[in-house]
């Protein structure tokens, strides 16, 4: 399994630095192997050199999925030949140092193989390399009995087990990190889909209402159709604007504005907030039928500036969702009240958002109230309730005055 560190600035810097450093070390290792050959013996110096060069190759090359099995196989073959056909066991110091360096290289390679190779390949290669690392000391001195040989090899095999466990642990950490990244991306995509659906659904539902009105009055009062068509056009432009605004916010580094632009550019879209609620209510008022719409909202810039961006965005979403439900399921309601208030201050400052509508006319088609019908594919009030709880607040909705409906969100500002 490969890593994705190249996608991060720190990862790219490490990738650029590791290659040249390993190349310099490889040159030094090759030179040291040539110098150690005459004194330590070429049968000990060559396996040592191949093992260390193999570790450097795996550590420096980015195509580890292909290079790890080949490199491990070459190192294993070299070490096996050194053990089987090496010189008779002696206690010469240069030979012992070369063998110990080779064992260290084999253990490092076990760790890298467990980290980067495919699961089946890693199991086989780590087993082979571990056996070779635990038996390499037999080149220096063979114990007098087979039991002592087995005991010594088993003891030094613990190093290979520890190296494999370290590589496997790093592999598991990387797997969890990649899974967490995928889950975060999936969550962002789902949130984006819900945002687009809810914002556009508010405008599209208005278009539907206006189109239905045009069909009703078109035959008897054709002079009224043109203003309705103009409102339909305005609602369509607003829906396209919602799409563009959401896409621009995605491109920004912090999710509040377009990437690479200064904050002074007021023409660029930014995250939805309390100021946008006024526009939402105005557009609903134009397409809300006979309903009398009242808006009570804090308009002081100083007080609005105290509201965090996430809280203001959630308040906007609550109003959009509630008014969309009124339009879809209580189109003949006589009145709608939208209230956005800061306070009370105790025990902590909160923002209270409330949308209330009166009971619809008895002859409304379908006879359904707002809460009687789900919205598949949208965030809905249940989703907004989860979003409010994530901010430490609450969102409640239910029947108001027999057949009316109220949606209330209380969001802490801290």
Mean pLDDT reading: 76
Oligomer: single chain
Structural class: alpha+beta
Shape: rod-shaped
Helix content: 55-70%
List low-pLDDT spans. Answer: 1-6, 258-268, 364-378
What's the N-to-C terminus distance?
43 Å
Number of strands: 5
Percent of residues in beta strands:
5-15%
> Domains counted in the coordinates: how many?
2
Helix-strand pattern: HHHHHHHHEHHEEHEE
The count of helical stretches stands at 11
Write the layout of secondary structure elements.
Elements: H1 9-40, H2 42-60, H3 64-84, H4 93-116, H5 119-135, H6 146-218, H7 225-251, H8 275-287, E1 292-297, H9 301-304, H10 309-329, E2 335-342, E3 350-357, H11 380-390, E4 394-400, E5 404-412
Parallel strand pairs: 1-2
Antiparallel strand pairs: 2-3, 3-5, 4-5
Helix pairs in contact: 1-2, 2-3, 2-4, 3-4, 3-5, 4-5, 4-6, 5-6, 6-7, 6-10, 8-10, 10-11
How would you describe the overall organization of this protein?
Residues 357-379 are annotated as: Disordered. Residues 366-375 have a biased composition (Basic and acidic residues). With 414 residues, the protein is of the alpha+beta class. It has two domains: 5-180; 271-362 and 378-414, Heat Shock Protein 90 (2-Layer Sandwich). It is 63% helix and 9% strand. It is built from eleven helices and five strands; from the N terminus they run H-H-H-H-H-H-H-H-E-H-H-E-E-H-E-E. The protein has helices at residues 9-40, 42-60, 64-84, 93-116, 119-135, 146-218, 225-251, 275-287, 301-304, 309-329, 380-390; strands at 292-297, 335-342, 350-357, 394-400, 404-412. It has a five-stranded mixed sheet. The longest helix has 73 residues, at 146-218. Residues 1-6, 258-268 and 364-378 have low confidence and may be disordered.
């Amino acid at each position: 399994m490969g890593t994705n560190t190249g996608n991060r600035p720190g990862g790219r810097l490490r990738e650029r630095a590791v290659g040249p450093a390993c190349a310099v070390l490889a040159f030094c290792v090759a030179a040291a192997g040539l110098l150690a050959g005459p004194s330590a013996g070429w049968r000990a110096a060559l396996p040592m050199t191949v093992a260390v060069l193999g570790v450097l190759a795996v550590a420096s090359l980015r195509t580890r999925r292909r290079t790890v099995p080949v490199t491990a196989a070459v190192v294993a073959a070299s070490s096996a030949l050194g053990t089987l056909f090496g010189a008779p066991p002696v206690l010469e110091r240069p030979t012992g140092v070369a063998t110990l360096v080779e064992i260290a290289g084999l253990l490092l390679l076990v760790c890298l193989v467990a980290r980067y190779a495919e699961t089946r390949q890693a199991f086989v290669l780590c087993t082979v390399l571990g056996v070779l690392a635990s038996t390499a000391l037999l080149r220096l001195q063979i114990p007098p009995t087979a039991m002592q040989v087995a005991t010594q090899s088993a003891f030094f095999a613990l190093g290979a087990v520890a190296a494999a466990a370290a590589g496997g642990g790093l592999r598991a950490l990387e797997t969890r990190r990649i899974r967490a990244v995928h889950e975060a991306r999936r969550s962002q995509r789902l949130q984006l889909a819900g945002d687009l659906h809810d914002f556009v659904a508010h405008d599209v539902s208005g278009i539907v209402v206006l189109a239905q009105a045009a069909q009703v009055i078109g035959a008897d009062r054709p002079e009224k159709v043109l203003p309705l068509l103009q409102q339909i056009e305005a609602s369509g432009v607003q829906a396209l604007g919602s799409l563009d605004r959401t896409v621009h916010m995605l491109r920004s580094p912090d999710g509040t504005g377009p990437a690479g632009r200064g904050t002074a550019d007021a023409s660029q879209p930014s995250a939805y907030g309390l100021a946008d609620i006024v526009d939402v209510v105005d557009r609903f008022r134009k397409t809300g039928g006979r309903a009398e719409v009242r808006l009570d909202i804090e308009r002081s810039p100083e007080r609005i500036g105290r509201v965090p961006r996430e809280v203001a965005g959630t308040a906007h979403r609550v109003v959009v969702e509630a008014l969309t439900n009124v339009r879809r399921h209580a189109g003949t309601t006589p009145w709608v009240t939208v209230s956005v208030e800061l306070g009370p201050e105790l025990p902590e400052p909160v923002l209270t958002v409330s949308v209330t509508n009166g009971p619809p006319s008895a002859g409304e088609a379908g006879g359904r109230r707002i809460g009687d019908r789900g919205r598949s594919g949208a965030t809905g009030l249940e989703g907004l309730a989860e979003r409010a709880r994530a901010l430490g607040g609450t969102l409640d909705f239910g029947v108001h005055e027999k057949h009316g409906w109220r949606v209330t969100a209380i969001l802490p500002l801290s």
